[in-house]
Amino acid sequence: MARTADEIKEAVKEHYGGRAREVASSCCGTDSKGYRDKLYVVDEVADLPETVTSYGCGNPTAIAGLREGEVVVDLGSGAGLDCFIAAKAVGERGRVIGLDMTDDMLALANANRDKLGATNVEFRKGEMESMPIDDAKVDVIISNCVINLSPDKDAVFRESFRVLAPGGRFHVSDIVLSRDLSSEERDDLSLWAGCAAGALLESDYLGRLVQAGFTNVSVDSRSKVGEKPWYSATISAHKPRNAGGCC
Ligand SMILES: C[S@@+](CC[C@H](N)C(=O)[O-])C[C@H]1O[C@@H](n2cnc3c(N)ncnc32)[C@H](O)[C@@H]1O
After folding, report:
1. Backbone angles phi, psi at 17, to 5 degrees
2. Ligand 1 centroid vs 18 CA: distance in angstroms?
3. What number is the average pLDDT over the span 57-71?
4. Which of 70, 148, 181, 214 yields a CA-CA distance of 20 to 30 A from 136?
5. pTM (global) more than 0.85
6. Does ligand 1 come within 6 angstroms of the Cβ of 73?
7. Which atom of ligand 1 is nearest to the CA of 149?
8. Which atom of ligand 1 is nearest to 100's Cα?
């Protein structure tokens, strides 16, 4: 029996809500600092409090080529890690919106923003399948290990295309599959929350981006951990300069 979108979203919220509460209630952060240092250039994250935890599978800011003054949206911003790195890159003239659907994660991200005094970052509650963001106002979309969690990836890609300005860029890290999963694996809600059961094959991922209107769709890097039938990939795509303001 295939899982419904509501079941999947509830399982994902429960899982990440729990992880956020764990960090918020711990006196000295969690053990994720070592993990964070593996994914990022150490200097980039050295000044961030330990409560700016990483639940990602890559570093989308490393491939996004962010420039001063740009408007960036981070899909599924978690504790805010990529938002804070992006905020430094775009500077005071730029703006970063972290979008997340989980209340406890938004509370953690807002507490982190207050600790850092990051005035050009806003965390907004919402779902990436129907983003509370205006048409064609965003320069860059980033996301780290989140799109695999969506039961409706086509909606995420459609919405990404809608909010990007013509010429806008899409740079994400995500989990993709090296083989199709069995129906038992696909129905496993803990495997959904663990970023595997909802993942697409790489060719399917790229094909759906093209279907949504993106061009120059490419895989920038791949990294496999262990023998699981999935791996992490960084993926880029572009909204053509001659695309209309909206869809
Ligand atoms: C694996 S964590 C990644 C967090 C962050 N990007 C990072 O690298 O640490 C997934 C995050 O995406 C959020 N999320 C999952 N599905 C979402 C959706 N459909 N819309 C908005 N946020 C979502 C979760 O609440 C969680 O904070």
Report:
1. -60, -45
2. 13
3. 96
4. 148
5. yes
6. no
7. 16
8. 22
